[in-house]
Amino acid sequence: MARQHARTLWYDRPKYVFMEFCVEDSTDVHVLIEDHRIVFSCKNGDGVELYNEIQFYAKVNSKDSQDKRSGRSITCFVRKWKEKVAWPRLTKEDIKPVWLSVDFDNWRDWEGDEEVELAHVEHYAELLKKVSTKRPPPAMDDLDLSVGSQAFQPVHVPGSWVTVMAFLCQRDSYAREFTTTVVSCQPAELQTDGSNGKKEVLSGFHVVLEDTLLFPEGGGQPDDHGTINDISVLRVTRRGAQADHFTRTPLAPGSQVQVQVDWERRFDHMQQHSGQHLITAVADNMFGLKTTSWELGRLRSVIELDSPSVTAKQVAAIEQSVNEKIRDRLPVSVQELSLDDPEVEKVRGRGLPDDHAGPIRVVTIEGIDSNMCCGTHVNNLSDLQVIKILGTEKGKKNKTNLVFLAGNRVLKWMERSHGTEKALTTLLKCGAEDHVEAVKKLQNSSKLLQKNNLNLLRDLAVHIAHGLRNSPDWGGVVVLHRKEGDSEFMNIIANEIGSEETLLFLTVGDERGAGLFLLAGPAEAVETLGPRVAEVLEGKGAGKKGRFQGKATKMSRRTEVQALLQDYVSTQSAEE
């Protein structure tokens, strides 16, 4: 039997490039990592020999690269020679082998994310071990399947996914409930974002049904929400030809169950997904603007266009065209094509994986576009209602992000905008057409008031400094607190006094809350006392040359600081 390629996923991080060779029950594993290439070979559970050789996009540090094996895959993390330089692709040549896909579940913008990556690398082996001993890691079988331009969450490359119509949610996107049978129910865990922002692991069950109405996440597409017998389904993931439904309550295998979908979420995804197909096709047909990736966000969606810039006129023309096609009520159809069907050659896509079997699912907007896609869609563009392009943003290198809303999201956006407009009209006491000018006038007035206030504070600081200097109580420890003021205010006082014999303790802010402090005086004393003052006030600070200043959280403890300073001065006087 001729050797085959192993399905491979990859994603880019600041210092490393991660690759996962998806092979179950692998044997005779060999991984060779060199500065410009990686060679991988093994046998799978059926004894088939697999071989992959990848010439890297850029040079790597082969001596600081590793590979780890689990029951379902072999993962390699390869250290970049030039760190913090993004890789637009894994391969040296600008090609996309059918067996190579981006791991969109892990791909994200990574600016400022080096600590997360380092922790990932250091603990990767331990995590793999924990996953493999408790239960098999989630299958990634769907990651070489599905779509042309489709509405999935993190960045997604159009045309790189294909799948057959396996589930009811794909056969009938408008179905809201149905009855099916439980096939299996196994203990499982789900990692979620907790209320405190930290990761939280939930214990529950993976329920497999004969068929499902709930679309499983995969390749970045958000999963559906819904219930099984009124039990909430917290996550739906694809595992080969099956879908795992995570619930906190077990369901008996063989039992009949009622499945319901969260229709508002489902229809929203259908509108954004079909809207993205339409925008992508129109942008390409009108201006040759190719879609390279896209994101279905919680409030808005973003299409990445392969162009360093897109003009306002082009944006307006695209928006006008897509809305005209919505008003034309163009039908959207889903069909299955066999691999040898001549129509396959006319469909937008990037090829099929080596192990693909069965028909190809194609989504067609009549007269506009045909795309390989596994997602849920409207059956007529009129169900999109309207598309609003909010504008463009600078994307990655030589890319432009097109921000858009479709359907009900446009109505919600208009409702929020109208609510804001009404509130501003009340506050500014003028019509909406005068809001901008009114805000500009307020900004100018505020800047002038701030400038005048600053000048007054400076004059007050000078006056206070002279008063302290001429006070009969001058000497030893001098303490002053004001509710209003800032660091500059305190420094002006210290500058005006200019004494190196007296300890000057200044504070501004809430008397019993947070504020700022400054300690000035003899350099040796300030160096000794400054950190202790910050500790008493439960704050942080720094200093040099006779001054220590910082932020405090417990201004109510100022009297303790004063006692600390008095004790220090008394001790110094006694020693002299």
Would you give an account of this structure?
Its main location: cytoplasm. One of its GO terms (cellular component) is cytoplasm. The chain is an alpha+beta fold and 576 residues long. It is 29% helix and 31% strand. It has helices at residues 114-134, 168-171, 263-287, 312-327, 408-428, 435-469, 487-497, 523-536, 558-575; strands at 7-12, 16-22, 27-33, 37-43, 49-55, 60-69, 74-80, 100-102, 177-193, 199-209, 226-228, 231-233, 235-239, 242-247, 256-261, 291-296, 301-305, 332-337, 360-365, 369-372, 387-394, 400-406, 477-482, 503-509, 515-520, 540-544, 547-552. The strands form six sheets. It has a seven-stranded antiparallel sheet, with no helix packed on it. It has a five-stranded mixed sheet with strand order 6-7-2-1-8, covered by helices on one side. Strand 19 (360-365) and strand 20 (369-372) form a beta hairpin. The radius of gyration is 32 Å and the shape is extended.
